[in-house]
From TrEMBL, chain A:
<dbReference type="InterPro" id="IPR007245">
    <property type="entry name" value="PIG-T"/>
</dbReference>
<feature type="signal peptide">
    <location>
        <begin position="1"/>
        <end position="22"/>
    </location>
</feature>
<feature type="transmembrane region" description="Helical">
    <location>
        <begin position="492"/>
        <end position="513"/>
    </location>
</feature>
<keyword id="KW-0812">Transmembrane</keyword>
<keyword id="KW-0472">Membrane</keyword>
<dbReference type="Pfam" id="PF04113">
    <property type="entry name" value="Gpi16"/>
</dbReference>
<keyword id="KW-1133">Transmembrane helix</keyword>
<keyword id="KW-0732">Signal</keyword>
<protein>
    <recommendedName>
        <fullName>GPI transamidase component PIG-T</fullName>
    </recommendedName>
</protein>
TrEMBL record, chain B:
<keyword id="KW-0732">Signal</keyword>
<dbReference type="InterPro" id="IPR028361">
    <property type="entry name" value="GPI_transamidase"/>
</dbReference>
<feature type="compositionally biased region" description="Acidic residues">
    <location>
        <begin position="329"/>
        <end position="339"/>
    </location>
</feature>
<dbReference type="Pfam" id="PF01650">
    <property type="entry name" value="Peptidase_C13"/>
</dbReference>
<dbReference type="InterPro" id="IPR001096">
    <property type="entry name" value="Peptidase_C13"/>
</dbReference>
<comment type="similarity">
    <text>Belongs to the peptidase C13 family.</text>
</comment>
<keyword id="KW-0337">GPI-anchor biosynthesis</keyword>
<feature type="region of interest" description="Disordered">
    <location>
        <begin position="316"/>
        <end position="339"/>
    </location>
</feature>
<feature type="signal peptide">
    <location>
        <begin position="1"/>
        <end position="20"/>
    </location>
</feature>
Length: 527, 414
């Protein structure tokens, strides 16, 4: 009896171990001190489901085969299979990414607000638009964000800019892209809570235990991202990331030293036992000043310092300090938002970039008035328009995709006249006097013009591209535009005034017509 | 002759109908369970909460804090996030004006952070509209709306509806843009009653002239309370000098202070809660409407609405249950993981249970022995099948009789 029970337990363990090897979980945390004294951090939680395929959209009419996940997040997996999504990217960001002082982010999706885009295969059973609606509603419930309002008035299909980051399976049907942004979306603890629930160790052990919302949402810039992609020969990968830019100078007395305790107000007490790899990377700054990193148990490679969290002694608190500095002074920067776009090329070579502007219909372009100036000289040859889908008021946003050629070491100014159509009074948001947030424009640097072939559809850039250290995508800041806002109290005022006038006029006319003045002789009192 | 046959056929069909309506044993058992305390229990099996803050903008911080205070209370007393619909019209915790990011406080002393680390807001920002609120209550939604945004109540659910914001005589303002009237809410509750979407509703509202909002209800089993009478304002409680605005309203503040003394096993009643109402403290006359509520208030527990607690019967097993000793009598349909290992006969099972549920506990001797329970469970598992079999046999026999009669009549007449 005893052995029978044991054999059963051993068999069960073997089964779960076999299943577990088909799923891998890696977690990593990267620190990068920035030149203006800030600290860029990036949490990455990657779950790889080996040997899995996205659901074929032609099977949408039938029952789906059951999926068994041990580490892979079940809630997200169910949503992906329900709507047969091949690739999904959701980012929720707050703040403005300062490219001038912070360089390029590790994760390119830094547009302010909520951005959701997905590649889905076509299907005769359920259309891509129908599945897009279901997908954004399901994700809005999952992540407590208002993604359900990314309706057809905010959805476009900019296939030139948002290329698939994984592979698209060959099913014989084409894949379509759906993209929507909500630049005014707030990000707060309620978005982080379901994010943490998708992790196998939740926020109890491992690197995820550092995610303290009271510190994360105090950062100068923060954003969380959910990226799902299909990698051929490997499987489905879910990457949950949280990027933020902290300001240690603000927390301390003018010093840019930082530690896990000072940044997150937490340390790592236990490592996540399910993680295949769990490491913390710290980028060594390239300046000459001396830097001290504690604890000493790290390895160095290619300008980074690596800590293995599973082997390190707990509680683990990593700190970096500049012992020779007394005080750090940071300069102030100011940026203004204009409807025109100015792009500066600091490199000594010509760069070609695709430029995407997807504007809600409340701002319409006059494309004939598009002007390009490079260093003060009008240069119309620097832009070549690839596609322009004009907006239809109350129905569809504008989609404008063009290729810009940036000469070396120059600044390009693009400007265009716009017109603001009239909104119906029911379309105004409750805080109408604030204005409308406009989504950011997206720039994707393509191969530089040294190569004769220009292939914007390349999802895996060649090795020369990497050497240039060009980012995959760049976002412009989000703008706020004022539209003609009606006086919402006007109907009440008009009714009151006109009713008063009518009452007065009617009263006077009625009196004039019907009132008769007669003389009455008042006889003296009889004595 | 034909008349006799017709009458016979009629009697057969009537007999079938009557048999189909006799309640099964299962239903009788359920009804007697809920009536076991003389009918004064709430008869609910699950609790839901709908918490609405309908004001936007930073200076309405106190309305957000009101709703979050209720959220925390309701979660602490046991209602899970899946049963709570929280609607916040603006983002206060991560607002750029908030000096304490990620935190919402309900007192100037800042001793308790209501936002915490584990919060789920179901409707936020522009999604908090009158239309969405009424859709949540009535359940009429687009099929693509996810589960976390639906009120999935049934006829044994107790629902706690809390609303706060700026209001007036029979209306409540949503985001300074639109209004919901007392008639709308009354009609929504009536729709819920017609569709059997609630067992009892506790409606609490904290606005100016709040008592007018519940004056129009006409559906049964609703208990309502408001913070001020007609032509009266509800006042805020205290200001925070660092944040620069008021952080909580008086009515909600005193209710939350009372709730801090209530835990999951508390026997505090609604009458105790309403005894807290005091004009000196609130500066307004808070009211209660209980004419639609069929139970007396001093026998209605707070946890009937605020907690995730319902009536349960627990039978304490009289045997010790270590897995290795019971070889033969171990039942197959109870999984091993659920049996407490090494449970002594001497262990007082009632104390183990009462620490986290408000259950009615009876010892095993009163009701059944342990083996008796299993026998009951097994027989009850089979009984419905037997009942169903009997019904189908009866149905076939009577239809067969009818067909035979019709055939005989036909053959006789030709």
């Amino acid at each position: 009896m005893f052995w029978r029970n044991n054999i059963l337990a051993v068999l069960l363990l073997c089964c779960t171990w076999c299943l577990a090897t088909s799923e891998e979980f890696h977690e990593a945390l990267t620190f990068r001190p920035l030149q203006d004294g800030r600290l860029a951090t990036r949490f990455t939680f990657t779950t790889l489901l080996r040997g899995a395929y996205p659901r074929d959209p032609s099977t949408l009419q039938e029952e789906d085969e059951s999926q068994h996940y041990a580490i892979f997040p079940l809630a997200l997996g169910q949503v992906l299979r329900e709507y047969a999504v091949t690739e999904l990217h959701l980012t929720l960001n707050a703040g403005k990414w300062d490219y001038d002082h912070w360089g390029y982010p590790d994760e390119p999706g830094v547009g302010t607000g909520a951005e959701l885009w997905a590649w889905m295969g076509e299907s005769a059973a359920r259309s891509v638009d129908e599945r897009w609606k279901g997908l954004r509603n399901a994700l809005s419930g999952q992540f407590c964000a208002s993604l359900g309002s990314l309706d057809e008035q905010r959805t476009t299909s900019p296939e030139l800019t948002f290329r698939p980051e994984g592979s698209l399976p060959q099913w014989g049907t084409t894949h379509q892209l759906r993209h929507g942004t909500l630049p005014s979306e707030h990000v707060c603890t309620e978005n982080l809570t379901p994010f943490l629930k998708l992790l196998p160790c939740k926020s109890l052990t491992g690197i995820a235990s550092l995610l303290n919302p009271h510190r994360l949402f105090d950062a100068d810039w923060h954003g969380l991202g959910v990226h799902v992609r299909y990698l051929e020969n490997e499987g489905i990968e879910v990457r949950l990331s949280f990027q933020s830019v902290f300001d240690p100078v603000r927390y301390s007395n003018g010093r840019r030293d930082w530690s896990l305790r000072s940044v997150f107000d937490r340390v790592i007490d236990r490592s996540c036992p399910i993680a295949h790899s769990s490491e913390i990377r710290v980028a060594i700054p390239k300046e000459e000043t001396a830097v001290a990193i504690t604890p000493d148990s790290y390895t160095t490679h290619a300008g980074f310092v690596y800590f293995n969290v599973s082997n390190a002694s707990k509680p683990l608190d990593i700190s970096m300090s500049w012992p020779d500095e007394q005080k750090f002074e940071y300069g102030s920067s100011q940026s203004r938002g204009r409807l025109s776009v100015s792009i500066t090329n600091h490199m000594p070579i010509t760069i070609q970039t695709s430029y995407l502007e997807s504007m809600p219909w409340l701002l319409q372009f006059y494309l004939h008035s598009l002007q390009i100036y490079s260093n003060g000289v009008s240069r119309d040859d620097l832009i070549s328009i690839v596609s322009y889908i004009p907006s239809v008021p109350h129905v569809r946003p504008t989609l404008f995709q063009a290729i810009l050629t940036l000469p070396p070491k120059s600044t390009l100014h693009l400007s265009m006249d716009v017109i603001k159509p009239f909104l119906r009074y029911t379309e105004h948001p409750p805080d109408a006097q604030r204005g409308w947030d406009l989504p950011p424009a997206v720039l994707v640097p393509l191969l530089h013009s040294n190569s004769s072939t220009l292939d914007p559809g390349l999802s895996n850039p060649p090795s020369g591209f990497e050497q240039l250290r060009l980012p995959r995508r760049m976002y412009t800041p989000v703008l706020l535009v004022d539209l003609a806002t009606p006086d919402f109290s006007m109907p009440y005022n008009v009714i009151i005034m006109s009713c008063t006038l009518i009452a007065l006029i009617f009263g006077m006319v009625f009196n004039l017509l019907t009132r008769k003045f007669t003389l009455i002789r008042v006889s003296p009192e009889p004595k | 002759m034909k008349a006799v046959l017709f009458l016979f056929a009629l009697v057969c069909t009537l007999w079938q109908c009557v048999h189909a309506q006799i309640p099964s044993e299962q239903e009788q058992h359920v009804t007697s369970f809920f009536n076991s305390h003389g009918g004064s229990t709430s008869r609910h099996t699950n609790n839901w909460a709908v918490l609405v803050c309908s004001s936007r903008y930073w200076f309405n911080y106190r309305h957000m804090a009101n709703a979050l205070g209720m959220y925390r209370t309701v979660k602490r007393l046991g209602i899970p996030d899946s049963n709570i619909i929280l609607m916040l019209a603006d983002d206060t915790a991560c607002n750029s004006r908030n000096k304490f990011p990620g935190c919402v406080y309900a007192s100037a002393a800042r001793d308790l952070d209501l936002y915490g680390d584990n919060i789920e807001v179901d409707y936020r920002g522009y999604e908090v509209t009158v239309e969405n609120f009424i859709r949540v209550l009535t359940g009429r939604m687009d099929p693509s709306v996810p589960r976390s945004k639906r009120l999935l109540t049934d006829d044994r659910s107790n629902v706690f509806v809390y609303m706060t914001g700026h209001g007036g005589n029979e209306f409540l303002k949503f985001q300074d843009n639109e209004e919901i009237s007392a008639f709308d809410i009354a009609d929504a509750f009536e729709q819920m009653w017609q569709k059997k979407r609630y067992n009892e509703i506790f409606f609490m509202i904290d606005t100016c002239q709040a008592n007018t909002m519940y004056s129009k209800f006409y559906s049964p089993n609703i208990l309502a309370t408001g913070s001020s009478e007609l032509d009266e304002n509800s006042y805020s409680h205290e200001n925070d000098r660092d944040l620069g605005i008021s952080v909580i309203d008086r009515f909600t503040h005193h209710i939350l202070r009372f709730m801090e003394g209530v835990n999951k096993t508390s026997q505090a009643t609604m009458q105790d809660l309403f005894n807290v109402y005091d004009y000196e403290k609130f500066m307004s006359h808070a009211g209660v409407r209980s004419d639609l509520f069929r139970r007396p208030l001093d026998q209605t527990y707070i946890t009937d609405f605020f907690g995730g607690v319902s009536q349960a019967e627990v039978m304490s097993p009289p045997l010790s249950l270590s897995p290795s000793s019971n070889e033969g009598s171990e039942p197959e349909n109870v999984p091993e993981s659920e049996l407490p290992v090494e449970l002594d006969q001497s262990l007082d099972f009632t104390s183990w249970i009462s620490s986290d549920t408000n259950a009615t506990v009876r010892s095993a001797d009163e009701v059944y022995g342990y083996d008796g329970i299993l026998h009951e469970l097994n027989s009850r598992a089979h009984a419905p099948k037997q009942g169903e079999n009997m019904q189908s046999v009866r149905a076939w026999v009577s239809t067969g009789l009818l067909v035979a009669l019709v055939g005989w009549v036909g053959s006789n007449t030709t």
